[in-house]
Write a structure and sequence with these properties.
This is Ribose-5-phosphate isomerase rki1. The protein has 262 residues and is α/β, with parallel strands linked by helices. The protein has eight helices and 14 strands. The strands form three sheets. A seven-stranded mixed sheet has the order 2-1-3-6-12-13-14, with helices on both faces. A hairpin with a 5-residue loop joins strand 4 (92-93) and strand 5 (99-100). Helix 1 (6-22) packs across helix 2. It starts with 5 loop residues before the first helix and ends with a strand.
């Protein structure tokens, strides 16, 4: 392996371990997720045989480009609604394999591919491994919203308990983060998803984040919400690359293992 910065090396370890364990020769439809760890997923797939009669379904523009650039066969979820295995990144994963996703504004397509997959696996570095969602990811839950409805959704999220004041947020254990419409860093105006929607980042008190499935249901029922970046009850495993060169695997049965990429 080429020398990488420690965090990048940890990401590659996690990605390689996940591919080695979950992408088998009999798997012909592979979902490719989004995020900074996913390039290493594609790299490992290519190293281990690439196409081999397979098709690769992306969650968004980033993963589509990775698939094409690697010379892999590109597919679409409308062609392949059943996927053998999807490997995706995560912004944070809790001790029960619930996760926050949507830092890259791809949560709708990511969730479609997660639910379409027989096996859905997450890969990340050790900074994303936590006991309770929100402990390490402080920006809030990414929520994809229809543009014309975003003001009404912001109001309803505040009524649900998402803080709009930093002092309130700190007291509630939401790390000072406040409810906000995500704005672009290199453009004027809001971030727009691949689906043409806005992204709202909604922090919640730690007490509510300890029950993510319940919170997911409440948010999803709000009119104007397209998808919520809470993924609950979907993952079979999560792989975290550690600074010491090991990989921590959290499995759906509640066990934890230490594994090595080949």
């Amino acid at each position: 392996m080429a020398a990488l910065a420690p965090i990048e090396a940890a990401k590659r370890l996690a990605a390689y371990a996940a591919v080695d364990r979950h992408v088998k020769r009999e798997h012909k439809v592979i979902g490719v997720g989004s995020g900074s760890t996913v390039p290493f997923v594609v790299e490992r797939i290519r190293e281990k045989g690439g196409n081999e009669g397979r098709v690769f379904v992306p969650t968004g523009f980033q993963s589509q480009e990775l698939i094409v650039q690697a010379g892999l066969t590109l597919g679409d979820v409308s062609q392949y609604p059943k996927i053998d295995v999807t490997i995706d990144g995560a912004d944070e994963v809790d001790s029960n394999l619930n996760s926050i996703k949507g830092g890259g504004a791809c949560q709708l397509r990511e969730k479609v591919l997660a639910e379409a997959a027989e096996t859905w696996v997450m890969v990340a570095d050790y900074r994303k491994n936590s006991e309770t969602l929100g402990d390490n990811w402080h920006q809030g839950i990414p929520i994809e919203v229809a543009p014309f409805a975003y003001v009404a959704v912001l109001r309803k999220l505040a009524e649900l308990g998402s803080p709009t004041d930093r002092a309130e947020s700190t007291v509630a254990g939401a790390h000072g983060a406040v409810l906000t419409l995500r704005m672009g860093k290199a453009k004027a105006g809001p971030v727009v998803s691949d689906n043409g929607n806005f992204i709202v980042d909604a922090p919640f008190p730690r007490e509510m984040m300890q029950r993510p499935a319940e919170l997911l249901t409440k948010i999803k029922l709000l009119t104007g919400v397209v998808e919520v970046g809470l993924f609950c009850g979907l993952a079979k495993a999560a792989y975290f690359g550690n600074a010491d060169g090991s990989v921590t695997a959290r499995l759906a049965d509640g066990t934890t293992e230490t594994v090595k990429a080949e």
